[in-house]
Specification:
Distance between the termini of chain A: 34 Å
Largest sheet of chain A: 5 strands, antiparallel
CATH topology of the largest domain in chain B: Peroxisomal Thiolase, Chain A, domain 1
Structural class of chain B: alpha/beta
CATH class of the largest domain in chain B: Alpha Beta
Strand order of the largest sheet of chain B: 3-2-4-7-1-8-11-10-9
Shape of chain A: globular
Number of strands of chain B: 11
Radius of gyration of chain A: 16 Å
Radius of gyration of chain B: 19 Å
Strand content of chain A: 35-45%
Structural class of chain A: mainly beta
CATH superfamily of the largest domain in chain B: Thiolase/Chalcone synthase
Shape of chain B: globular
Oligomer: heterodimer
Distance between the termini of chain B: 19 Å
Strand order of the largest sheet of chain A: 6-5-4-7-8
Order of helices and strands of chain B: EHEHHEHEHHHHEEEHEHEHHHHEE
């Protein structure tokens, strides 16, 4: 499933590798991934925000039947996590027995290897959550 | 706007249809709908299909289907809103007839899902979520609805038994539907002991992978009278969108697009939800049926689970839901689902639902079709 051209990979690197978000200069609301237009007011002026990498689990599941790129990793925990800055994102929760993932648990984000696209010979990296 | 009616319906059997190709599925359903309406021409058609590209490597569906149905050179357009593509086709056809631009318009839907393996099907369906920020991290559709279920259980005390009762009821209804993919009856214990797909959802909480097509013919009400076919009138239709990613919603358990689409359809029809006799809703997962009923205002948040367990949504209950068997038992060829929902409304409103699943009091029905984890929804209200 080659979903890969070089540009598609590097375009997302600031947010995937370094968790760069942005803040609407008009309302102060923080967006992840960064947006180019603020919902509701069409403002296009933003300032860059570095997420702290800390958050809490809002909800979660254990994926036992995985899509092709993650087939070898299943079962794995997947969660919606709210960061300290108030943005929510989806990430895997790693480095603990999957049955110990709970709503409300504190997590830190770390830079991890996510999956490999053998056809395109590309290894994808990004953030995963680990117990704080 | 002109008053619009559904004047013809047709569908294929839903299932793993190894002999049937993408194009032949659609043509079989479209031909049946044209014969049912008694028309030998179309002015235009819309075809709901989520992903001809990923499932069969075919785009340009409008041209392909017009060609093989033998109705070229009429305008034909594929419309896509993930699993709500069928409902979106109904809406597009409705607008074209209501505006006066065309008289006889076909709204169809098709998905050929079994030409790829399970991993690829899971991947293709996951593209209805945010591909870069959900799918990229390993989210699947069962996984997204499982996260809704986890949150619903924590917030309202909804149980696995309550969710399982949705599947049991829909299979009981589907056992009477000759078009259903899985007409077998199941039990709550059977659901709870089936394989876990994404906790807390078991495989019997999930709708299946299905091949199938469905079609409906829309026309002005006076055309129905001229043709001498029953006019099932489109009283209201509403569509709404929400964040593509589940994590973008402040309230994980609330389907905002369903709430807004329902309100729009009811406003157009000048009705309240209590004026609706029965509904076909998008039970892609058991938890989805519960959240949809709460978003539509049939039940207060947290109350749909207990009501389902108590049998209120059975065919003889207070508010019959999914008399066709729903996506769960009838099958879920994603692009065709919204049309198949409308077909069940038409059968119930004509009084021709097969095998004794006809509802006693069916004058007004509502179809609720949904894309992704609730990123889009189309609601259609029909009246006999």
């Amino acid at each position: 499933m080659a979903q890969t051209l070089t540009a598609r990979v590097w375009r997302e690197q600031p947010q995937r590798y370094r968790m760069i978000a942005n803040r609407c200069t008009r309302t102060g609301k923080v967006f992840f991934p960064p947006r180019i237009v603020a919902p509701g007011n069409l403002n296009a002026e933003f300032e860059e925000v570095q997420l702290s990498g800390k958050g809490k689990v809002v909800t979660f599941t254990i994926i036992r039947v995985a899509p092709t790129p993650y087939a070898d990793l299943a079962p794995y925990a997947l969660a919606v996590i709210e960061t300290e800055e108030g943005v929510r994102l989806t990430a895997q929760v790693s480095d603990l027995p999957i049955e110990q993932v709970k709503i409300g648990m504190s997590v830190d984000f770390e830079f991890r290897r996510l999956f490999e696209d053998n056809e395109a010979s590309v290894i994808y990296y990004g953030y995963k959550a680990v117990p704080a | 706007m002109r008053d619009v009616a559904v004047i013809g319906i047709g569908m294929t059997k839903f299932g793993e249809l190894w002999e049937a190709s993408y194009r032949n599925l659609f043509v079989e359903a479209a031909r049946a709908a044209m014969l049912d309406a008694g028309v030998d021409r179309l002015d235009s058609m819309y075809i709901g299909c989520m992903s001809g590209g990923l499932f069969v490597g075919q785009e340009h569906t409008g041209s392909l289907m017009a060609d093989y149905l033998g109705v070229a050179p009429i305008p034909a357009t594929r419309v896509e809103s993930a699993c709500a593509s069928g409902g979106t086709a109904i809406r597009s056809a409705f607008l074209e007839v209501a505006s006066g631009m065309s008289d006889i318009v076909l709204a169809g839907g098709v998905e050929k899902m079994t030409d790829v393996d399970g991993g690829m099907a899971t991947y293709a369906l996951a593209t209805a979520a945010d591909a870069e920020y959900e799918g990229f991290h390993g989210a699947t559709f069962p996984g997204l609805y499982a996260m809704i279920a986890t949150a619903h259980m924590a917030k309202y005390g909804t149980t696995s038994e309550m969710m399982a009762s949705v599947a049991v009821k829909n299979h009981e209804n589907g056992s009477l539907n000759p078009y259903a993919q899985f007409p077998g009856k199941i039990t709550i214990d059977g659901v709870l002991s089936s394989t876990m797909v994404a906790d807390p959802l078991h495989i019997l909480d999930c709708s299946p992978v299905t091949d199938g097509a469905a079609a409906a013919i829309l026309a002005p009400v006076e055309v129905a009278e001229k043709l001498g076919v029953p006019a099932i009138v489109v009283r209201g239709i509403g569509m709404a969108t929400d964040t593509i990613a589940l994590h973008g919603r402040k309230e994980i358990t609330h389907l905002g697009a369903v709430e807004v689409a329902t309100k729009k359809a009811l406003e157009m029809a000048n009705l309240s939800i209590n004026d609706i006799d029965f509904a076909e809703v998008h039970d892609c997962f058991t938890i989805a049926e519960l959240c949809v009923l709460e978003a539509m205002g049939v039940y207060a948040p947290g109350k749909a689970g207990p009501a389902s367990l108590a049998g209120e949504t059975k065919r003889d209950g207070k508010f019959p839901i999914n008399p066709s068997g729903g996506l769960k038992s009838k099958g879920h060829p994603v692009g065709a689902t919204g049309i198949a929902q409308v077909i069940e409304l038409v059968k119930q409103l004509r009084g021709t639902a097969e095998n004794g699943r006809q509802l006693a009091n069916a004058k007004r029905g509502l179809a609720q079709n949904m894309g992704g984890s609730g990123g889009s929804s189309v609601v259609t209200i029909l009246e006999a």
